[in-house]
TrEMBL record:
Membrane topology: Multi-pass membrane protein
One function term, GO molecular function aspect: voltage-gated chloride channel activity
Superkingdom of origin organism: Eukaryota
Function: Strongly outwardly rectifying, electrogenic H(+)/Cl(-)exchanger which mediates the exchange of chloride ions against protons. The CLC channel family contains both chloride channels and proton-coupled anion transporters that exchange chloride or another anion for protons. The presence of conserved gating glutamate residues is typical for family members that function as antiporters.
Protein name (database record): Chloride channel protein
Any one annotated GO CC term: synaptic vesicle
Compartments in which it is found: Cell membrane; Early endosome membrane; Late endosome membrane; Lysosome membrane
Xref: Pfam families: CBS, Voltage_CLC
UniProt-listed InterPro entries: CBS_dom (IPR000644), CBS_dom_sf (IPR046342), Cl-channel_core (IPR014743), ClC (IPR001807), ClC3 (IPR002245)
Entry keyword set: Antiport, ATP-binding, CBS domain, Cell membrane, Chloride, Endosome, Glycoprotein, Ion transport, Lysosome, Membrane, Nucleotide-binding, Repeat, Transmembrane, Transmembrane helix, Transport
UniProt domain CBS: residue ranges: 658-722, 755-812
Transmembrane residue ranges: 126-150, 214-236, 256-277, 284-301, 313-337, 386-408, 428-447, 499-520, 532-553, 573-598
Family, per entry: Belongs to the chloride channel (TC 2.A.49) family. ClC-3/CLCN3 subfamily.
Length: 818
């Protein structure tokens, strides 16, 4: 019953005259369902009210595509509002592409008329490159700013630099002459809060004071972040990637990529990372880059007036976002292609590559980490891997797949519970509780106290002669046969064993807290926490294999390639492979993930271990469920997203899915010349459909075309205002020639120009497998079902999503538009 109510909910729609229609009679989401619980219930009700029936929309003219007349026969000037979309609509890809081709032909036909027209033609041709250049510049600059600010605020939890408060801990001690190699992070200029407040650098009092200040700053940053999100930009919370996937598939969420969202997301992302919550900034950086792309696209008419072209810019922007997040321009392009983009022509591939290049260049110029690299945890390994090591690499892939399957189920269950209980009505309280628990548990363990990116850096790093970490506390063998850059495998010291125990506790802590953190109302990425979990597991496995090889080098598996005193095993490599496996298990990325991690390490030699681990994690994860975390959140929030990766293998027909069903009332239709203005207005008022098929007559049921509710409303209102003699009894004519009427009849109203004369149709015996493919590949919103040319019913995108849920033995009402 709930799904039927959703079907009957009406919105005024855009009008257009298209070669092929893709406008659904029910394509809009219920406003409160789409809001993803970003706000409290009061905000949801406000949004729901804004999108309800009878709302007045301000619209702009988009022009006609396939009409000999200019939009409406009854008017000389175009009608404002034709050709645009409202909030929570899905765009018509076919119409937008037709509109762009018409614009391109018009510009080409005029360019030889004058120098000014030629200049406009060149500007139009280069505007695509200009907009991606601006997007890349802005994305790189904002990423550098976020990195620098997050580092400074993270260190602020522990102390402050007295000589220059804007320096972080590392920068503060750069210029000091009083640091030692063993204690390189200690210098007189840097003061902990205990030293400043109680004057003690050591002892229980100092530890307790630093503990209290750490919790204070963590809660302050978290509270400020969630407050800014709640008050100014509710869409700034979360990762943003599920929504960007949905937007790139053609859905419109007004304000999601706006200037307020960009500004608040940039500020609160710094605060959220600095608060120490188990989240990362890499996912939200994709959202930030897409906001930049969306804002800059409004400077160019080619993109501002065409939603399909705008999505090409957003695809390039998402590539730039990953490029600055990981310092991986090629990985960014592949991420956009594999993970987020719905429509990705070759031209977009080139522009995505260029945007990623520009963004990476700007970030490298800023050099936020002071290591001349684009990321904090860039590493290089010099030891080759051996065939036997594929076994532990594959085991890490199994762990990554299991972690991904567990995380997706646990996180979705928690997010669903948040939506359905009172707990979801108090987002600020939830963030404060999660931040408090995280800070209290994280401080005693040095590995959880670290910024997550710093932790990954430490786990990835190979133990060289300059490393002072407890992970590198090995007992030196003075009888080693060769001392070169590659230090030979050595027995682990007490520091390594204590570090392993701390890492095991950190692993449990990260697994539990990440489940509860992803989805709270602050910007929260999933890449870095997943990589940290994998890196911890990988480092532990790497140390175990290293010690096994040292103590049992005479075993047949080690005998051939691991000599005594040789550097055989690199634990840091295992951490890197584990990180890739866990991230692959959660997101189900494959090619793009391997390339991103390969660009992080700069070593072609390790592609095979990475591929083995990532593919294993995907296979293991797919055994428990084929959805990645982003697809799961799209489904949870009820966005109308047809996933191209999902296969439809059932043998149902269009007649099984179309509506009306046998128990439903007949389909609401218009006749081409037998209805009056009053009849159409009554039909619009009595029903809530967003479009009506037009037929020759009730008896013949022969299909003529499709008219949108909003077009009809706009056309009738305009005619009443601007044309004499249009009254309720005026005959409405959709035919080319007006039928002969009695002399005393009021003036007829011709509406043929708002009629889509070629809507997509399928027969009632068309297999649903083909219908689903048509919807996916053409971006349709609805198609009409006919039998021997007679209209039978309609199939919308929501009908297909409901049907797919039913065939998967799911209750469609529980997952659609909830």
């Amino acid at each position: 019953m709930e799904s039927e109510q959703l079907f009957h909910r009406g919105y005024y729609r855009n009008s257009y005259n298209s070669i092929t229609s893709a406008s659904s009679d029910e394509e809009l989401l219920d406003g409160a369902g789409v809001i993803m619980d970003f706000q409290t219930s009061e905000d949801d009700n406000l949004l729901d009210g804004d999108a309800s029936i009878g709302t007045h929309y301000t619209m702009t003219n988009g022009g006609s595509i396939n009409s000999s007349t200019h939009l409406l026969d009854l008017l000389d000037e175009p009608i404002p509002g034709v050709g645009t979309y409202d909030d929570f609509h899905t765009i018509d890809w076919v119409r937008e592409k037709c509109k762009d081709r018409e614009r391109h032909r018009r510009i080409n036909s005029k360019k030889k008329e004058s120098a000014w027209e030629m200049t406009k033609s060149l500007y139009d041709a280069w505007s695509g490159w200009l907009v991606v250049t601006l997007t890349g510049l802005a994305s790189g600059a904002l990423a550098g700013l976020i990195d620098i600010a997050a580092d400074w605020m993270t260190d602020l939890k522990e102390g402050i630099c007295l000589s220059a408060f804007w320096f972080n801990h590392e920068q503060c001690c750069w210029g000091s002459n009083e640091t030692t190699f063993e204690e390189r992070d200690k210098c007189p200029q840097w003061k902990t809060w205990a030293e400043l407040i109680i004057g003690q650098a050591e002892g229980p009092g100092s530890y307790i004071m630093n503990y209290i200040m750490y919790i204070f700053w963590a809660l302050s940053f978290a509270f400020l972040a969630v407050s800014l999100v709640k008050v100014f930009a509710p869409y700034a919370c979360g990762s943003g990637i599920p929504e960007i996937k949905t937007i790139l598939s053609g859905f419109i969420i007004r304000g999601y990529l706006g200037k307020w969202t960009l500004m608040i997301k940039t500020i609160t992302l710094v605060l959220a990372v600095a608060s120490g919550l188990s989240l990362g900034k890499e996912g939200p950086l994709v959202h930030v880059a897409c906001c930049c792309g969306n804002i800059f696209s409004y400077l160019f008419p080619k993109y501002s007036t065409n939603e399909a072209k705008k999505r090409e810019v957003l695809s390039a922007a998402s590539a730039a976002g990953v490029s600055v997040a990981f310092g991986a321009p090629i990985g960014g392009v592949l991420f956009s292609l594999e993970e987020v983009s719905y429509y990705f022509p070759l031209k977009t591939l080139w522009r995505s590559f260029f945007a990623a290049l520009v963004a990476a260049f700007v970030l490298r110029s800023i050099n936020p980490f002071g290591n001349s690299r684009l990321v904090l945890f860039y590493v290089e390994y010099h030891t080759p891997w051996y065939l036997f090591e594929l076994l532990p690499f594959i085991l890490l892939g199994v762990f990554g797949g299991l972690w991904g399957a567990f995380f997706i189920r646990a996180n979705i269950a928690w997010c669903r519970r948040r939506k359905s209980t009172k707990f979801g009505k108090y987002p600020v309280l939830e963030v404060i509780i999660v931040a408090a628990i995280t800070a209290v548990i994280a401080f005693p363990n040095p590995y959880t106290r670290l910024n997550t990116s710093e932790l990954i850096k430490e786990l990835f790093t190979d133990c060289g002669p300059l490393e002072s970490s407890s992970l590198c506390d090995y007992r030196n063998d003075m009888n080693a046969s060769k001392i070169v850059d590659d230090i030979p495998d050595r027995p682990a010291g007490t520091g390594v064993y204590s570090a392993i125990w701390q890492l095991c506790l950190a692993l449990i802590f990260k697994i539990i807290m990440t489940v509860f953190t992803f989805g709270i109302k602050v910007p929260s990425g999933l890449f870095i926490p997943s990589m940290a979990i994998g890196a911890i597991a990988g480092r532990i496995v790497g140390i175990a294999v290293e010690q096994l090889a040292y103590y049992h080098h005479d075993w047949f598996i080690f005998k051939e390639w691991c000599e005594v005193g040789a550097d055989c095993i690199t634990p840091g490599l295992y951490a890197m492979v584990g990180a890739a496996a866990c991230l692959g298990g959660v997101t189900r990325m494959t090619v793009s993930l391997v390339v991103i991690v390969f660009e992080l390490t700069g070593g072609l030699e390790y592609i095979v271990p990475l591929m083995a681990a990532v593919m294993t994690s995907k296979w293991v994860g797919d055994a428990f469920g084929r959805e990645g975390i982003y697809e799961a959140h799209i489904r949870l929030n009820g966005y109308p997203f047809l996933d191209a990766k999902e296969e439809f293998t059932h043998t149902t027909l269009a007649a099984d899915v179309m509506r009306p069903r046998r128990s439903d009332p007949p389909l609401a239709v218009l006749t081409q010349d037998n209805m009056t203005v009053e009849d159409i207005e009554n039909l619009i008022n009595e029903t809530s459909y967003n479009g009506f098929p037009v037929i020759m007559s009730k008896e013949s049921q022969r299909l003529v075309g499709f008219a949108l509710r909003r077009d009809l409303t706009i056309a009738i209102e305009s005619a009443r205002k601007k044309q004499e003699g249009i009254v309720g009894s005026s005959r409405v004519c959709f035919a080319q020639h007006t039928p002969s009427l009695p002399a005393e009849s009021p003036r007829p109203l011709k509406l043929r120009s708002i009629l889509d004369m070629s809507p997509f149709t399928v027969t009632d015996h068309t297999p649903m497998e083909i219908v689903v493919d048509i919807f996916r590949k053409l971006g349709l919103r609805q198609c009409l079902v006919t039998h021997n040319g007679r209209l039978l019913g309609i199939i919308t995108k929501k009908d297909i999503l409901r049907h797919m849920a039913q065939t998967a033995n799911q209750d469609p009402a529980s997952i659609m538009f909830n």
